[in-house]
Specification:
The complex is a heterodimer of chains A (642) and B (190).
Chain A: E1 10-15, E2 20-25, H1 30-33, H2 36-47, E3 61-64, E4 79-85, E5 92-98, H3 102-108, E6 111-117, E7 124-129, E8 132-137, H4 146-157, E9 162-165, H5 168-171, E10 179-181, E11 186-187, H6 192-198, E12 201-207, E13 212-213, H7 217-227, H8 293-296, H9 320-333, H10 337-353, H11 359-362, H12 371-382, H13 388-391, H14 395-402, H15 404-407, E14 411-412, E15 417-418, E16 421-422, E17 425-426, H16 452-461, H17 477-485, H18 492-510, H19 525-534, H20 540-562, H21 566-578, H22 590-604, H23 615-620, H24 624-632
Parallel strand pairs in A: 1-6, 7-12
Antiparallel strand pairs in A: 1-2, 3-4, 3-6, 4-5, 7-8, 9-10, 9-12, 10-11, 14-17, 15-16
Helix pairs in contact in A: 2-18, 2-20, 7-19, 9-12, 16-18, 18-20, 18-22
Chain B: H1 6-23, E1 44-48, H2 61-71, E2 73-74, E3 82-84, E4 93-95, H3 104-108, E5 116-118, E6 125-127, H4 138-142, E7 150-153, E8 158-161, H5 173-177, E9 183-187
Antiparallel strand pairs in B: 1-9, 3-4, 5-6, 7-8
The chains are: A alpha+beta (642), B alpha+beta (190).
């Protein structure tokens, strides 16, 4: 075999029921599906059949990295986690990205991915060291929090051991359980911690001393240099709204801010530089701001809503120090932070405010300004105690069980001011595919105005998770301007949605940070990095073509396994967008949205009435075998050419 | 450690080691370019800035670009600089070769002057892997720093030590690519 660049050779195939471990050659997949999310799409197509229960041994827990992972390509230390998600409604194939160092270490140990199926007879962990893997006894780790598990794995296997672990929430098969790396990064959405728990898998740990070959080292360094901008404005004297400098002076006994959250990050890591006078700083190459990391510590503050001062809002009055305590506990228990802080707690607190939930149902008084309340709540969820038994199923399932009519649709009638006007706000922020609203004009982060949230509506339809699940929508400023001029009928909306979707597939397959890419003013960056690392000279357009293949493959999995159709998708997202938005009280125009969807499907080469890709589209993308299987199932659209 | 005593520390360490070697009749071991008395001092070395000037964010870019510039690949066995990442605080440390006044690595090398070399113009201590005896690793054992600032690549059986990127026109890659600009080349005796 010729020398590999970028990829390192093998995908670990683990069956915990049989205790069997084998290795699949990465290159059977790599050229067509790259890695990361793309590789998982293909493995999902091959391995996750219709009707698989997420907690059954038949589900696969997949970890996947790409050709850039472990190299100096900026922000490349990321990994994708996937499988049938217990958090999604219906349960379906989904994914969650995670930063940190685990992905790179996996490459240094010689693997581009791991697929774990089956269920171990007793608690175990998977130990991967330099080209070999072993299933280890984890009975002594079962019950530990995620931090203690990490520390114990380091004690047993060496200080350089990288790990991906679950906490008590995962062990108890919570549908909102996360998997956490040793550096505190989480694959939060999707409930994959619960999947690991159902397999009796407490952790995966890895130790690698190998390397990732780079085809054109000088070229790679030159591209990295090009991407890193060096603005001369001192961020400490800028008045960025996203900074939290004013909030933290304190005496927090543990880390106040995160360090750079993934290997090879070149981003402006604002929180880490508080009070450090500097003249220049690299980074700033996101279109909006440099990094989500700076929000990680304090985003549960009420000013996330972007209101004017004096707002009345029945949520808890967090501050950054108290917010951190909550975040640390969520991580230690192995829960999904976004679900809890962005969906569940706002729902609980607003339901209490509206008289829908009281101590009677809840079991104890709802008082989010009391720290003891949080400890009780979070432990209850992780250990499935009391009302926590219900909440461990995730907010949407809890609402469905309690009664959607009563608990899901009520509008909070108190004051919520935005730009001087009172805004109605729904109690339930749970909308599509079982997830909390995510920066789409309504819900906890409601500041996206019309028509920008229309693009979120469009891309949310075909997803299996929350909207914006590979970061917020990205587009070139000039395109956005043209879109805003003619939002429903113009050609720019569909075009931008498609571009954003393809780039999402690509960045999560290479792997690059979903916050950092694509770079609006340097859209060929991904292709150049890919070419330099792998030696496969690839243009931006060629990479976009692969992105299209991956998007269609993911769609094929959902069509085959989950009966996805246009009708089902539109019906899933519309209730959310029928509500007035949080900035100008604008609701979606359903008829006009139909035209936008028509145009989007046309642009994609999908049949209009079903929303299914045509055989011609699959064939064009080199997915002939996928088309063949879908045809047998009657899931190719009738275009007269099948 | 930034202002106070790094240099003094190195000097002290050098003296102590020198004393040991002298006591063991070390003079007889010198077969290389320089004897203990006349080894030139290095002109430059890498230092991490004090946190009041710039803080390391712990991204590990220094390690990666180091490996890629020198070895054309990235991995823990290929780097010549080490990030000591503090997951629970902000004080990450970058561990670099000190370009010691008394280069114990040089004296320990059985083929000193060929494998472990000293640049005649800059005094930079570096390793010429082509002349290195596979797997001897005496330089690593001799390094007074903990952990040793010389890496070992088990695949190619090479020892790897910071050479200040002496063949790179732009100077050390780690300094150029550090996103937080927390590394710099410091001149000795300047």
């Amino acid at each position: 075999m010729s020398k590999l660049y970028g990829w390192v050779g093998g995908i670990l195939d683990v069956d915990l029921s049989e205790g069997r471990i084998s290795v699949v050659d990465t290159m059977e997949y790599a050229l067509k599906y790259i890695g990361g999310k793309g590789l998982m799409h293909r493995l999902a197509w091959e391995r996750l059949s219709r009707g698989t229960d997420p907690f059954s041994p038949d589900n696969c827990l997949m970890l996947s990295v790409g050709p850039l992972t472990g190299t100096p390509a900026p922000t490349s230390g990321r990994m994708e986690v996937g499988g049938i998600s217990p958090q999604s409604i219906p349960e379906m194939y989904s994914h969650s990205g995670v930063g940190g160092w685990f992905g790179a270490e996996l490459k240094y140990a010689g693997f581009d991915g791991v697929s774990i199926r089956g269920m171990a007879p007793s608690p175990c962990y998977l130990r991967i060291i330099d080209g070999a893997a072993e299933i280890m006894d984890a009975r002594h780790l079962w019950g530990l929090g995620s931090y203690a598990t990490r520390d114990e794995l380091k004690r047993i296997n060496g200080a350089n051991t990288r790990s991906l672990v679950i906490g008590p929430a995962g062990e108890n098969r919570s549908r909102i359980a996360a998997m956490l790396t040793d550096s505190g990064n989480a694959a939060g959405q999707g409930g994959f911690g619960g999947v690991a728990g159902s397999k009796n898998l407490k952790a995966v740990c890895v130790n690698g001393s190998g390397s990732v070959g780079i085809a054109h080292p000088e070229e790679l360094l030159a591209r990295r240099s090009e991407i890193m901008r060096r603005p001369t404005v001192n961020p400490l004297v800028s008045d960025s709204e996203m900074s939290y400098f004013g909030h933290s002076t304190g005496t927090v006994p543990w880390k106040r801010f995160n360090l750079s959250c993934t290997q090879a990050c070149d981003r402006f890591c604002m929180p880490a530089f508080v009070d450090i006078p500097r003249a220049s700083r690299a980074g700033f190459h996101c279109s909006d701001f440099a990094c989500i990391g700076q929000m990680g510590a304090g985003w549960q503050q009420t000013d996330q809503f972007g209101e004017v001062p004096g707002v009345e809002w029945p949520l808890w009055q967090q501050n950054i120090e108290r917010g951190l305590e909550v975040v640390e506990l969520i991580n230690d228990l192995g829960l999904n932070q976004y679900e809890i802080l962005g969906g569940m707690v706002p729902w609980i607190v607003m339901s209490a405010h509206e008289g829908l939930l009281s101590e009677k149902e809840f079991g104890f008084q709802i008082e989010p300004d009391n720290p003891h309340w949080w400890v009780k709540l979070l432990n209850g969820i992780a250990y499935r105690e009391g009302f926590g038994e219900l909440l461990a199923e995730g907010t949407t399932r809890a609402i469905n069980i309690l009664g959607k009519e009563k608990y899901g649709q009520t509008i909070y009638t108190g004051k919520r001011r935005f730009s001087g006007a009172d805004m109605p706000t729904p109690v339930s922020l749970q909308q599509a595919w079982g997830y909390a609203a995510h920066y789409s004009g309504r819900g906890i982060n409601a500041s996206v105005p019309f028509p920008d949230w229309l693009l979120r509506a469009l891309t949310w339809m075909t997803q299996s998770r929350d909207s914006n699940n590979d970061t917020h929508h990205r587009s070139r400023a000039e395109d956005l301007k043209a879109f805003r001029a003619e939002p429903y009928r113009g050609e720019y909306g569909p075009r931008m949605a498609v571009w954003d979707e393809h780039r999402s597939e690509i960045k999560c397959s290479l792997t690059l940070c979903d916050w950092a890419f694509p770079i609006a003013y340097y859209t060929s960056a991904e292709a150049k990095l890919f070419s330099a690392v792998t030696g496969i000279d690839t243009s931006e357009e060629e990479l976009d073509f692969i992105g299209e293949r991956l998007k269609n493959l993911q769609r094929a999995v959902l069509i085959r396994n989950n009966e996805r159709t246009r009708q089902a998708e539109v019906a899933e997202i519309l209730p959310f967008f029928r509500r007035p938005d949080g900035t100008t009280a604008t609701a979606i125009d359903e008829n006009e949205f139909g035209i936008l969807v028509d145009n989007y499907y046309r642009q994609r080469g999908w049949e209009k009435s079903t929303g299914w890709p045509t055989r011609a589209k699959y064939n064009q993308l080199g997915l002939d075998d996928v088309a063949g299987e879908l045809q047998k199932l009657g899931k190719l659209p009738d275009t007269g050419q099948n | 450690m930034s202002q106070i005593s790094r240099r003094e520390f190195i000097k002290d360490a050098g003296l102590a080691l020198g004393g040991l070697l002298a006591g063991a009749g070390a003079g007889a071991l010198y077969t290389g370019q320089y004897g203990a008395a006349n080894v030139p001092e290095a002109t430059y070395r890498l230092v991490q800035l004090d946190a009041s000037e710039s803080a390391c964010t712990g991204c590990g870019t220094c390690e990666l670009v180091c490996a890629v510039f020198h070895q054309g690949a990235a991995g823990p066995s290929l780097r010549r600089i080490w990030l000591e990442r503090n997951e629970t605080g902000l004080n990450c440390r970058v561990l670099t070769c000190h370009q010691c006044d008394y280069p114990a690595c040089y004296y320990a090398c059985p083929v000193k002057g060929k494998a472990l070399c000293i640049d005649t113009a800059t005094g930079t201590r570096y390793i010429n892997t082509a002349e290195c005896i596979d797997g001897c690793r005496k330089c690593i054992e001799a390094c007074p720093m903990e952990p040793p600032r010389i890496n070992y690549d088990p695949v190619n059986r090479d020892v790897l030590m910071c050479d200040m990127c002496r063949s790179r026109p732009g100077g050390p890659a780690c300094v150029e690519f550090c996103p937080s600009e927390c590394l710099k080349v410091e001149g000795f005796g300047v």
